[in-house]
Amino acid sequence: MASKPILTLSDARRVAAAAETEAQSNGWKVTIAIVDDGGHLLYLQREHDTKFGSVETAMMKAHAAIAFQYATKDSENAVQSGRLIHLALPGVIPAEGGVPLSIDGVIVGGLGISGVRAVQDGQIAAAGASAL
Question: Which residues have CB under 8 Å from 97's CB, separation 6+?
Answer without folding.
Answer: 58, 61, 72, 73, 112, 113, 114, 118, 121, 122, 124, 125
